[in-house]
Amino acid sequence: MADVLTTMGYTQKSQSISMIVDLERCVIDQTAGFDSKTMIKWNDNPLNDWMIPLIGAFESTIEICSIYATTHANALKWHINLRHFSLYKQEKPVASITLSMHDNTTARIDNVGTSTPIAGQGIC
């Protein structure tokens, strides 16, 4: 597939590693390392807050991320098993993640993005 994309003019910017989460064995303490002004919210509807951190994280624009969010919203309408979450600091979305659900016990982590101003601070 890489050769096809290169032929189309795409260039590889970075590499990533696919990961899955076994939700039956995963225990998440949402208070670990968080102060009273930090929280995680489920953001499937609407996806506006979910896309905000992705703009800076992927060096994108609000127009491109809006199209991306619309694509995800349409996938949700078709019952594609996606879950969108955002980390809020002082009521502002600062990081986002998408989970592509395989079933009720396994998820693939996609679209992890942290807002540029807080990137590298160990928040997520």
Write the layout of secondary structure elements.
Elements: H1 2-7, E1 20-22, E2 38-42, H2 48-57, H3 62-77, E3 82-89, E4 92-101, E5 106-114
Antiparallel strand pairs: 1-5, 2-3, 3-4, 4-5
Radius of gyration: 16 Å
Count all strands and give the number: 5
Number of helices: 3
What ranges have pLDDT less than 50 throughout 5 or more consecutive residues?
A: none
Q: Calculate the mean pLDDT score and round it.
A: 80
Query: How do the strands line up in the largest sheet?
Result: 1-5-4-3-2
The share of residues in helices is 25-40%
Q: Mind describing the biggest β-sheet?
A: 5 strands, antiparallel
Query: Separation of termini?
Result: 31 Å
Briefly say what this structure is.
With 124 residues, this protein is an alpha+beta fold. Helices cover 26% and strands 28% of the residues. It has a five-stranded antiparallel beta sheet with strand order 1-5-4-3-2.
